[in-house]
Amino acid sequence: MEIWARYDDIPDPDQDFSETSYTLLGCMLCRQSQLWLWTEPAEFDDSDERQRLWPQVPTLAQDIPTPIAREVIEARACFDAKLYTAAAVMVRRSLEGMCIEQGTKKGALFQALQELRDDGKIEGRLFDWAQALRVLGNQGAHFSEHSVSREDAADALSLAEALLNYVYVFTVKYEEFQNRRRSPGSTAE
């Protein structure tokens, strides 16, 4: 990364405010840019804060297992670098990781997703999404004349995150809610 531009907001010297710098960084290889905010500490403070302002990095739910989250983060990095075919392959890897982590016995991703559906872990449209992501990942993994488009890669990332949130966040929250409602002393009817 190289500094392309910088603006320093220097506070009045009579006040104890932190100096703030806005820095535009750029990658010399891919020509991607990032805008960062640096806040240098005031005399009484020893912290140095750095925050990426643009492009914003979406966060994954903490409940998604780390190995699977790493695959999605790598898929995003591929997408940000305009490597859309690679992003689709990484999305597919995140699906494989989800199936393995969920305890599927089937080796092939197609069958493992069917097993998750049959076990009630994913249903209807989620199963269809997962199969569509699998097919797109296959398109990326095997040579053909057709590359994965930016739009398809963006949708693949969004759908994969929705699927992972469903499996690891919403399903757990719903089960907790149901258990709480069934417990003695609840007002469930």
How would you explain this protein's 3D organization?
This protein is of the alpha+beta class and 189 residues long. The chain has 2 domains: 2-54, no CATH class; 66-178, Nucleotidyltransferases  domain 2 (Four Helix Bundle (Hemerythrin (Met), subunit A), Up-down Bundle). The protein is 50% helix and 16% strand. It has 5 helices and 4 strands; from the N terminus they run ββββααααα. Strands 1-2-3-4 form a 4-stranded antiparallel beta sheet, with no helix packed on it. A hairpin with an 8-residue loop joins strand 3 (33-40) and strand 4. It starts with a strand and ends in a 7-residue tail after the last helix. The mean pLDDT is 85.
Distance between the termini: 60 Å
Give the tally of structural domains.
2
CATH architecture of the largest domain: Up-down Bundle
CATH class categorisation of the largest domain: Mainly Alpha
* Mean pLDDT over the full residue set: 85
Neighbour order of strands in the largest sheet? 1-2-3-4
Question: How many runs of DSSP E, i.e. beta strands?
Answer: 4
Largest sheet: 4 strands, antiparallel
Number of helices: 5
Order of helices and strands: EEEEHHHHH
CATH structural fold name of the largest domain: Four Helix Bundle (Hemerythrin (Met), subunit A)
Write the layout of secondary structure elements.
Blueprint: E1 2-9, E2 19-26, E3 33-40, E4 49-54, H1 66-80, H2 84-101, H3 109-118, H4 124-141, H5 150-182
Antiparallel strand pairs: 1-2, 2-3, 3-4
Helix pairs in contact: 1-2, 1-5, 2-3, 2-4, 2-5, 3-4, 4-5
Which features does this protein show?
189 residues, alpha+beta, Four Helix Bundle (Hemerythrin (Met), subunit A), 2 domains, 4 strands, 50% helix
